[in-house]
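FW: tagging you since you asked about this chain on Friday. Here's the raw sequence from the shared folder, copied in full. Didn't touch anything.
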Amino acid sequence: MTPELALISALNGISYGLLLFMLASGLTLIFSMMGVLNFAHASFYMLGAYFGYQISKWIGFWPGLVLAPLATGLLGALVERFGLRRVHKWGNVPELLFTFGLSFIIVELVQVIWGRPPVPNELPPELQGHLFTIYTTTFPISRGFIMVAALLMMLALWIVLTRTRIGLVIQAALTHPDQVEALGHNVRKVFMLVFGGGCALAGLAGVIGGVVFVTEPSMAAVAGAIIFVVIVVGGMGSLAGAFVASLLIGVIQTFGLALDYSIAGILQDVGFKVSPDTFGYAVWKLTIAQVAPVLPFLLLVLILIVRPRGLMGTREG
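HL: got it, structure written out here
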């Protein structure tokens, strides 16, 4: 691998990893504060992309960047208030089943409203073009925008949770709900705010991911699989773990797509003869680029074997 390819792959991996963190942070926040594993989280990510697309058609991308996450968060708060809260008393399994079914309902509604094919969700003129050039390879402005937006979101989230009154109330309600209720705070409203806020973060990731990549109904399924890998690898309920795992998986996938090595090729380079008659040749000839989509799941299996709580997890799932 040339230095040029390594550097551009690292930057692409970091930008993709930061987008994953934008999505994972909302799910991690909901789980750490409420103990709810929201299987519909990726569907809210998809809703954010479609809301952003629709608002962009009406009044432009930048208003959509603000309004679409707010709309997604409001919808999430309504789901918590009129749906999730009613099944909460029955335990975690009904909560999982509720959010699992909700994910299918959202996908079907999106297909009814916007159709099955991808929608033409394009980058605004300000995000088109190149940010800088490395050797002969250009780095797009849109990737840089993902990095800046994710870092600003992380900073804002840290400030809200650690430096504001509402953040202290949220953290106190997690461990001492009765005492918080006795002090005059409505714990149910706090949890509704947390769930809505987590969905809003997913919506923000959807607005940005929808214009940088593609906006289509299948984006929920694709994001849902990888995002659960992120939170398990990082550690259930750990925002710091989600950040580290997001960057790790983003870099692994990006570098994997750029590597054209195979076990057969490596064996031949060191003097072993590998031919189509060799046992398992169909597997040995696979390149890293061909198996790159599987690498995060292999990492997941390895982490579960070596450290079941995840890299920085403090809470069991």
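FW: DSSP finds 14 helices and two strands in the chain.
HL: agreed, and The first helix runs from residue 3 to 34.
FW: great, closing this out.
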